[in-house]
Amino acid sequence: MTDWPPTRAAALTRLKDFAPQAAGAYARRRNLDLPGHPNVSRLSPWLRHRLITEAEVIAAIRDRHGPDTAAKFLSEVGWRLYFKGWLEQRPAVWTAYRADREAAWNEVQTQGGLRQRWEAACTGQTGIACFDHWAQELARTGYLHNHARMSFASIWIFTLGLPWTLGADFFLRHLLDGDPASNTLSWRWVGGLHSRGKTYLATPDAIAACTEGRFHPEGLAQHAHSLDGPPPPQPRPLPVSDRFDTQGRVGLLLTEDDLCPDDLLDRGLHPVATATLQATAGRSHLAVAEGVADFTTHCTADCTARLADRIGPVTACPDGAGIVRWAADNRLDRVMMHHAPVGPARDALGDLRDVLNARGIALSVQVRPIDALAWPHATAGYFRFRDVMTEVIARA
Ligand SMILES: Cc1cc2nc3c(=O)[nH]c(=O)nc-3n(C[C@H](O)[C@H](O)[C@H](O)COP(=O)(O)OP(=O)(O)OC[C@H]3O[C@@H](n4cnc5c(N)ncnc54)[C@H](O)[C@@H]3O)c2cc1C
């Protein structure tokens, strides 16, 4: 997985190298899924962990090309913010995904035929050449081009007739950028559960066009009937930042969702100690690919090494209970952290605020300005969200 060195320096270099093509070339060629993926940024593994932030990427591309010339690329980064904000307001969709995945997994274990089809899909032995290629590419590299992801999900659901939650799980276990929001909601989108009734049907011609003729599969489903599911729950209120208080003994908590605490340090946070929380194992009920877990571990280590002289001694904590022990051991008055969005890290934290408060320790959660601005607009489809992107781009 050498294409993604797990460092912020590597992410910044990729951004710099990609920047010249982020305007016209990206708009024209971004849908081409070619070996080495030269037409897209491949920034997502680092963005996933905020080793580099959306605001930094948006600002760099806006400043180089202007917001209109690079509109297509900037709107793709907007999709990430949109999905995050949408799920943040509907955590029940993540909870339901996990429950449905559990139920589907039970069926795989008890139905021999289903198990065989699931195994063939995960190992790339279905006989559908493009699909098998993508399954193997994903396992080998930890990355797939967006169009390959769309086609793969469509074939998984509509041609192979496999449960969508197990496909989403396969991605989450293998993608270096495996993200609870972008992944779950994209799979739901392909299956017709996100934009209700609108599915994505992968066609042989579209696959041939995007792979420049490398693949032209036969025998794909010709209809994509929307999957059944309850309507999404009503949005719930979004988190807001706690008071930024650096009085007393303050500890910094880093989760794998945000490994750029520089803004907190620059605002005057001088932590006496730092805790890290890696929740990769919580992405699935099955083992997450070694390369994925390693990538997250090394991204976290890169952050703490880079900021070693500013963040005090570092302790790796396995879960919320470990963080409470760490806070008590360090006699902290307060723990400060960036908001952990819906997903495994948040799941692992549990009711951290209440447990800390019961011990007289405050929790100060900071929501990034870009999230505070963008997320409230992720109420319906991306179409409505687009309006706020002008402001997001201007302010990044
Ligand atoms: C079924 C399916 C599952 C997906 N799972 C994930 C996932 O787990 N994690 C993830 O980050 N993305 C996911 N995506 C979205 C998208 O495929 C990837 O973000 C993109 O391919 C990453 O490659 P890149 O960095 O070269 O993208 P670029 O085209 O260079 O785009 C730049 C950045 O914009 C964001 N972005 C681009 N397209 C999308 C999109 N459609 N949705 C959300 N954000 C986008 C990403 O952060 C990306 O790094 C999924 C898409 C599908 C169809």
Automatic annotation (TrEMBL):
Record-listed FAD binding positions: Y26, F73, E76, V77, G78, W79, R80, L81, Y82, F83, D177, G178, D179
Matching SUPFAM superfamilies: Cryptochrome/photolyase FAD-binding domain
Cofactor requirement: FAD
Marked site: Electron transfer via tryptophanyl radical: W105, W164, W187
Domain of life: Bacteria
Alphabetical keyword list: FAD, Flavoprotein, Lyase
Note describing how the cofactor binds: Binds 1 FAD per subunit.
Residue ranges annotated for the Cryptochrome/DNA photolyase FAD-binding domain, each copy included: 73-199
Protein's UniProt name: Deoxyribodipyrimidine photo-lyase
Organism for this UniProt entry: Loktanella atrilutea
